[in-house]
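The instructor's notes for this session suggest beginning with a concrete chain rather than abstract definitions. Hand out the sequence below and ask the class to guess, before any prediction is shown, which regions might be ordered.
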Amino acid sequence: MIEQTEMVVTNWHYHPPTKELTEESKIKSVTSFDVMRKRASTKKGIACRFTCVFKINGEFVLEYVGENSYVIDFEDVIDSAELLRMIRNAFTKFNEKFDFRKLGTVLVNTSLSPLNESIIDLNAILPLLI
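After discussion, reveal the predicted structure:
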């Protein structure tokens, strides 16, 4: 059995921009993804962490970090399709938390960039689940 924990926002550092926003203001964001192995005497799992940094016209505005975990029975075998589904689900929760917390910020009309699955090395992550 696979259990997903709640997405926990571990970091939300928001700094309102010092200059007035204009239509020419450029909002840029970079999202990174990290995975860590988790072990207990009866379970295995991974912890997923997403970090997104927003800048407006080169000025730091927001650093947002969210983490959640998957707890898996030892006898369960995870393949690359299931792992990718787990990562997608984690990112969806990360995105949902952002959509709620961005209200009241200058990023209210901004969305997270879609998850770039092509840079996720599933073959490097799968051994963490053996």
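Then share the key points. Residues 2-121 form a domain with the Bacterial Protein-export protein SecB fold (CATH 3.10.420.10). The first helix runs from residue 80 to 101.
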